Amino acid sequence: MENYILEHFDEALKNKWIKVYYQPVVRTITGAFCGAEALARWNDPEKGLLSPAEFIPVLEDTGRITELDLYVLEQICQDYQMVSKRGNRVVPVSFNLSRKDLLHNDIIERIEAIMARYNVPRELVNAEITESAFVEDVEQIGPALKKLHELGYQVWMDDFGSGYSSLGILKDYSFDEIKIDMSFLSKFDKKARNILRSVVTMAKRIGVQTLAEGVETKEQYVFLYTIGCEKIQGYYFGRPMPGDVLEQHVKNTQQTVESLALHNYYNKISAVDYQTDAPLMIVERYDKKFHIL
Q1: pLDDT tens sequence across 33-61
Q2: According to the model, what pLDDT value does residue 222 have?
Q3: DSSP string spanning 239-274?
Q4: Which DSSP symbol is given to 93?
Q5: Catalytic amino acids?
Q6: Angle at Cα 269 formed by Cα 278 and Cα 202, nearest 5°?
């Protein structure tokens, strides 16, 4: 299978056998559709649908993952243009950058060239860096993250809590958001909930937003909403799906699509720590009425 993947990777890119699927992200405080994660899916004419667990490690090991990640970014930008032309509201999309990507001296320039080609605002694309990227070569990764921030991209830490050095990485590097690993929700017991409470409180104190992955039940959603986790992603709100299917999914579920103006507004509100013994209520006032958030 590894040989097949390497022998057919160029062909898969050329023929668009690899497509970008989007998994919706929801704002807990409003229930609005506020973003998406872009994920690669390889539908091979001979082997059928290949799991990312089959082809991504192979591409990482052989150094070809950068071609895939930039291909995904280009598909995001093309989809952005199509959605914009239809007059539909767009939301920020995150895509993955691996350690191998960040070791390329020209990776930022290549990202910028794709964004400029399709005239996509930087605030609409977030870079997800997996925690495992910091295991080695960290002296080269740091400057790349700093440059992304300087240019106006948000940088997220993916799979927070799945490795051994999350806290050290948070201390030494600047992130806008951490994606809490789904393993905390797979065993949703009292201990896991207490850890999640602590992570959300810590993140707010250091000015980092939180997103929980792997949300599959209403119970999990309500708990995360209650402790102030800002965003959630998981099967409870939708599986990864093609862009046009996601648009229809949002319409079918009559879900509100968050505007960019409100996106920035709610990002600021998310700094409030709900886990307090003091009396606390967050309300909005519009249309001459108060609305409890």
Answers
A1: 999 999 999 999 999 999 899 999 999 99
A2: 93
A3: --EEHHHHHHHHHHTTPPBPPHHHHHHHHHHTTS--
A4: E
A5: 213
A6: 65
Task: Give DSSP secondary structure letters for 111-144.
Answer: HHHHHHHHT--GGGEEEEEEGGGGSS-HHHHHHH
In the chain, % of residues over pLDDT 90: 64
Residues 50, 293: Cα–Cα separation, whole Å:
42
Determine the average pLDDT of the residues in 268-281. Answer: 86
Instruction: Please state at what angle helix 107-118 crosses helix 138-151, rounded to 10 degrees.
Output: 30
Q: Answer for the pair 158, 128: CB distance below 8 angstroms, yes or no.
A: yes
Cβ proximity of 249 and 48 under 8 Å: no
Identify which has the larger pLDDT, 1 or 138.
1
Write out pLDDT tens, residues 67-79.
999 999 999 999 9
Tell me how far apart the alpha carbons of residues 137 and 140 are, in angstroms, rounded to a whole number: 6
**β partners of residue 209:** 177
Q: How far apart are CA 64 and CA 272, in angstroms?
A: 42
Q: How many whole angstroms separate alpha carbon 217 and alpha carbon 223?
A: 10
Please give the pLDDT value at position 212: 94
CB atoms within 10 A of CB 282: 12
* β-sheet bridge partners, residue 36: 24, 93
